[in-house]
Automatic annotation (TrEMBL):
SUPFAM superfamilies: Chorismate mutase II
E.C. numbers: 5.4.99.5
Full protein name: chorismate mutase
Originating species: Pseudomonas fluvialis
PROSITE patterns: CHORISMATE_MUT_2
Gene3D superfamilies xrefs: Chorismate mutase (1.20.59.10)
InterPro entries (UniProt xref): Chorismate_II_sf, CM_dom_sf, CM_II_prokaryot
Length: 85
């Protein structure tokens, strides 16, 4: 099960890195409305799969915060590289 989780996290991480390349404004990286939407969808899925919604809420909030931080770091690197060219 852990292998499957890490495989999915790696896929999500790659998507985040790709998204950072296309986003030009840092505020878009934080997209609070989108975060709320993703968490709401995850909680709905949790309820249909008999998973405790509070657990899913906490996992998703933590995961999203960490991914946003990684995306911001990637975005900063890309901006620094662009300013040197």
């Amino acid at each position: 099960m852990d292998r499957a989780i890490f495989t999915l996290l790696a896929q999500r991480d790659r998507l985040v890195a790709q998204a950072a390349f296309f986003k030009t404004i840092t505020n878009k990286l934080r997209a609070t409305g989108r975060v709320a939407q993703v968490i709401a969808q995850a909680i709905t899925r949790a309820q249909t799969k008999s998973v405790h919604p509070k657990v899913v809420d906490r996992i998703y909030r933590t995961m999203i915060a960490a991914l946003i931080e990684a995306e911001l770091e990637e975005h900063a690197v890309l901006n620094a590289q662009a300013s040197h060219t």
